[in-house]
Amino acid sequence: MYNDIALDHISDPRNAGEIKDADSIGHIGNPADGDRITIYIKVNNDILTDVMFKAFGCGAAIAASSMITVMAKGKTIDQAMAISNEAVSEELGGLPPQKLQCSNIAADALHNAIDDYRSKRLI
């Protein structure tokens, strides 16, 4: 069902865990199938210096959460906001069509963390 890249991110997820002193946290869930993703970010001079995740759900959600952290770390806030759920799936080498609903929330969780970070800076 999954290709080698996705299986690697499922069995050995990158950047799993939380950042205790995160600058911001983004949450997203998919009530249709119970997936839940939390993204933690650290930001320095508008660069995501650290990105970690916690995920509950199917393998596709875990793989996508792992991949989004790899894709976003080291990017500017604007570059990270440009990462789409489709780009995450593509970077994973594609996912089975029936699993796209599970994985198509990882970028949303990252975007929520960045939106929260930006709102805190305006206060």
Report on this model:
The chain is α+β, with helices and mostly antiparallel strands and 123 residues long. The protein has helices at 4-11, 59-72, 77-81, 85-91, 100-103, 106-122, and strands spanning 24-30, 35-44, 47-56. The mean pLDDT is 92. It is 45% helix and 22% strand.
Helix and strand topology:
Elements: H1 4-11, E1 24-30, E2 35-44, E3 47-56, H2 59-72, H3 77-81, H4 85-91, H5 100-103, H6 106-122
Antiparallel strand pairs: 1-2, 2-3
Helix pairs in contact: 1-2, 2-4
The main sheet orders its strands as: 1-2-3
Helicity, as a percent range: 40-55%
Please give the number of β-strands.
3
What is the strand content? Answer: 15-25%
Question: How many helical elements?
Answer: 6
Main sheet properties: 3 strands, antiparallel
Series of secondary-structure elements, N-terminal to C-terminal: HEEEHHHHH
The helix/strand class is alpha+beta
Shape: globular
Low-confidence segments: none
Radius of gyration, CA atoms, in whole angstroms: 13 Å
> What is the rounded distance between the termini?
46 Å
> pLDDT average, as an integer?
92
